[in-house]
Fold:
Amino acid sequence: MKKSFVIVFFVMFLLTTFFIASVNTAEGQTAKKEPIRIGLIAEKTGGLAAYGYSHEKVIVAAINKVNKEGGISGRPIELFVEDTESKPSVGALKFRKLVETDKVDFVFNSNSSGIAIACAPIAKELKVPYFPCSSAAELAGEKGNRYVFQFATNVAQECKGAAEFAIKHIGKKWVTVVVDYAWGWSNEKEFTKYITEKGGKVLKSIRVPLGTGDWIPYLKGNIPKEAEAVYFANFGSDFLSFIRDLYVVRPDIKKLGAVYAISAQDPKKLGKEAEGLYCLTSYPTRLAGLNTQYNKTFRNLIGIDPEGKESGTGKYFIPAYNWTIWEAFFALKSAIEKSGWTSKADTPKLIQILEKMSFKESVEHPQGDKYIRAEDHISITGLYVEKIENGEIKVVAKIPAKDTIYTPMANRINESF
Amino acid sequence: MTDIKRKININFITIPIFILLILMGFFLPEGVKSLVIHIMVLSIFAMAYDICLGFTNQCSLGHSIFFGVGAYGVALSIIHFQTGLLSSFFICIILGIILGLIAGIICVKLSEAYFVIVTAVFYAIFHLSAMNMTWLTGGDDGLAIHLPKISLRFVEISLYDKIINYYFVLLVLIVSYFILNRFVNSPLGKVFVAIKENEKRVKFLGYNVFLYKLIAFVISGTFAALSGGLYAITLRYASADFFSFHWSILPVVWCLIGGIGTLFGPWIGVAIMYIFQYYISSIWHYYLIIFGIIILLILRISKKGIFGYIIGRLQT
Amino acid sequence: MDGFFLFLNGLIWGLIIALIALGLTLIFGVMGIVNMAHGDFYMIGAVISYYIVSYLNNFWLSLIIVPLLAILLAAPLERFVLRPYEGFPSSSMIATVGISFIIQQLALAVYGGIPKKIVNPFPLDISMFGIYYPGYRMLVALISIVTLLFLWLFLYKTSFGILIRASMQDREMANAMGINVNRVLISTFAIGVVLATIGGVLAAPITQVFYLMGNDIVLLSFIVVVIGGLGSLKGTFITALALCAIEGVMASFLSPTQARVLTFLLMIVILMFKPSGIFKD
Structure:
């Protein structure tokens, strides 16, 4: 029996040490000059590892700027970063860790809609304001709550704004071509809805599986003669195959792409198939598309070059989403200062102030003027329309914020805290 | 000539651990409590898998189907049928049994490598379908669950209370352990072990090996589904990701490094992995490299995992 | 005509999978290792070819450099890390899972988490049977077939190759006959890894180079190995081609997901009626 006693003792010893070690981790006292703790859940490994890298850099840059200028309400900001491993189950656990163990007061990020949807209810349960940078429209509906604030534009806003521009400047008779999964389906549904509302018509809806090399079978014979334009939702290598094969089938047809469709492309390599193509974006990847002093300063601070890659290393950033983290952070800063937030007890007051705030274009909000809609906590902001002309991407129009306003799917104004 | 092995009753380890866990519930800081809850839930899964691999030598690579079905059993019952928490639980157990029978009847009779592959094909089919049927499963985005309160005779308890959540999960763990321990120490369990050691001989002795392996598979699947349901409750979330390969291979990892055929050993595997993920990931997000090295080291020392090694030493 | 196009696509993927699966079958047959890291060797092949294209501007050099690097990686890996697990399927499966974790995270650290494309190294389209078929894919077919031919020659016509096949048939006999086990084990593992990396190099331009790309092909490779009949090289080859071609054809009128699910169901049905696989060597 002596051996088993040793083993039991050893196991108990292990457990006790780990228990003691954990008790010693951060116990946040709320003194006045205590730092404000902010958590970031980032995709540092896993399928979405491309996103976590830049998101972390952006929020670090924002925090550094603010700390240099004296912090928020005189308090320095401390950042805690956790890896979601691109999995909702891990993301949810790390969200809890940030709040329960690291004692953060606010959580930023995930680009993944799955992770954001998993974490949103936890944010409410733990009473922590949460700023995902996912553009999932469900977060503005039944899957969100009063603690969640979305700065990234969602498909409903984008399609509504797109439809307005499309009817005025491109044409009335459309065909939609989308990739065959949730993002594609949302684009198809929302664009059809809004173009129809505005007097246009979608003659055909085509869905193409992700990763299809040859689009001819999907396009040939499926685009009616009277169709004037195509609204498409795809990206990456799918986009390349799409424009190549669309040109074979209908070289004359006009094209309008959903947000993010051409973000990572090099316009010089696209050739004549892409000439005249329009594309939506919430934020132009290239500095030339939004050449304001504010934007220049912002881009310098986060360290990206005029082409949208990291200065010096040339690594990929995701400008289309990076701005949402930056602006969300500064929005929070404004809200803390305006509401006089000092600790968790003040959070309801902070939320009530934040959900009615508006922001002017500035270094803190380089994407443009915007305001938060109290009913569903989305940011109402404008979009940009880019066009490929002579092998270059130029911003040719701005879709005003008012064109993107759609009926909210939720009303959180009276939601209890 | 086989050595006569001393019968080891692992209760001498598990009972002190349970007492420790009961006490810890009062002292642990919030964050660690969440971690321990997480570990306890997945320990049920690991333990269930051990019945399959450790006790009847069936290396299934498809157990994520039970995990996912259990999770969705609970999620869909609560969301669409507004069932109470406990009833959803029972639904997911029933689903586990049914699925275990169906999958088992197809797979169990296959010989080793084919069993592994067909169970893997099962998981692939479930995973692909779940990702596709977003109207039902929410696909990769998943479904968030709002937990109903549990109403016992005089009182309503809510799992949103961390302490309640902790003891609820601990209770399920303890009950599951004692049920499985009973199985394993019963005449049924002895046949399992005999099958693991020498399947042909058991067949010659007149036992219906297929039936026993099927029973083990169904028990294993049922408790895996139970753990899936509990996981969905703990996370308040279910997603098609629960059917992925990740959840099929992890139980094997937990069992092999924790200790196969020991029922308790796999808990160690779970604990090591998640303690690593919780504490080391924020320091060095490539922690899986260390974990990979640990796997290699443990398996080098003993093919039976840590606890398997300990038990082996105690028996001689 | 798109059915035929997709059939050809399927066939060519089948050739790539055949390379990978044959590597897997050799490793399992001779060493008794269930190599869950096999997909990550495929990924390493693709990643190295990406670097070769970036720095040396020549894709075809990869076909020479990558196998050499693969041997340098495989030999010590087998000798010093994998040797203790050989012959133990479950342990080797989990040990290789551990190795997979390590390789994947290292790739993430060095190569990064962003999927990148390699420019088509042979952008000519070849006209055949009324359609334009990408020239690069035809080259893939050619190179795969040549590689398979070399493999066949080695395994069936050289004395060392016959030794390896003998070890596959019966490890203990081979051992008893005094064959240099060490050499056989290291060589077999090296060949298996080389096959996987070549598969990765060939696949790189037609898919994306991503540190997790190995996960996509592991399951399919294992299925091919088992259905082909464990230890049957011919069976593995035919199964790889058949399965991928069938899936390709089905993808012409179903979504790729549905095509894959149906292919898997078909496999289950096959195994229910022929439980020891289609081919027995």
